[in-house]
Prior knowledge:
Layout: E1 4-7, E2 11-13, E3 18-24, E4 31-37, E5 44-50, E6 55-58, E7 66-71, E8 76-81, E9 90-97, E10 113-114, E11 118-123
Parallel strand pairs: 2-11
Antiparallel strand pairs: 1-3, 3-8, 4-5, 4-9, 5-6, 7-8, 9-10, 9-11
Amino acid sequence: QVQLVESGGDSVQAGGSLRLSCVASEYSSKYTAWFRQAPGKEREGLAHIFAPSGETYVDDSVRDRFAISQDKAKKTVYLQMNNLKPEDTAMYYCAARQTGGSFSTWRTSSWDFWGQGTQVTVSS
């Protein structure tokens, strides 16, 4: 059982930046991803990283503003968010998947472990 703990959420003004952290109890997962969920909306996938190679993917919707990275020594995956907008307000979650291969990236059932989330609020 991998435990994930997110941190770094905060209240910021539009145009600001935040870096979210996801610390894993053990860094054994093949993939780690960041999702977010705003009130009344479905959980949406933002970015993921393949741990063995560091290969990343960022969804088109945030690709020009968000970046994902990892520090294996710290068992941590980061989400750097720049030029934040009010519509970025949401609870942000990290998720881990133990296995590689083909899978539906943004289907929540594809991910084995989830953190409790960290709140990001962006005011205009």
